[in-house]
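Table 4 source record.
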Amino acid sequence: MKIIAHRGASGEFPENSLLAFEQAIQQKADGIELDVHFHDKSEEFILLHDCYLDKSTNGQGHFNQYSLAELTQLSLGQEQKLITLSQALSAIAGRTLVNIELKTVSSDMSVINAQLHVLQSNINKAIKNDGFSSKQFVLSSFNHHILSQSKKILPNIDTGALISHNPIDYARLAKNLHCQTINPAIDCLDQALIEDAHQKGLAVWVYTVDRIEEIQFCQQLKVDAIFTNFPKKARDHLKQL
């Protein structure tokens, strides 16, 4: 079972920060998950889970009210600053898999296309300059319009359909989207969903799994990967199990 560091090693270090990513690598995570929002003024992706800044930075208000220069001066704590996707990929430098969660909510295809082309540019740059291969990237989203369109613009990048429910048709939605993974919340995970996904050739990546009981539950159900805020603790729990 793979261990993916959720926003980096975010249980101990500021989420979506260079420090959290470096620690995740040092803790031997199999991959890093990070969140990106599209910044309209600069047409850059910034690493941020919530669109309002007060949850994880010392800023206030919506991130699109700020310039990129202002955003990248905001503190995440522990001497960490808010960063761009390009900065993150340069720092990770191909040392591990990266799961990029795109937070866009729009279903406007012109908006989606524009953002996917910027993402394509970021990924191509990382492959050229930062030691990545295309197989080290996964694009995930709750916005399944993005996943569908990404197959046209980023055909070589794996995709994962994020869900927070147990669909009546189980994993069919991910199969129809030509995804490689279905990514359910731990709270709605059950055996039937996993079995259906595996029968359809899909891997199951579950978020967010921190408790030892949840790690054990996922292992028993033959989950393929877990997203966790504590990659070292998760690894240690797996060894004990």
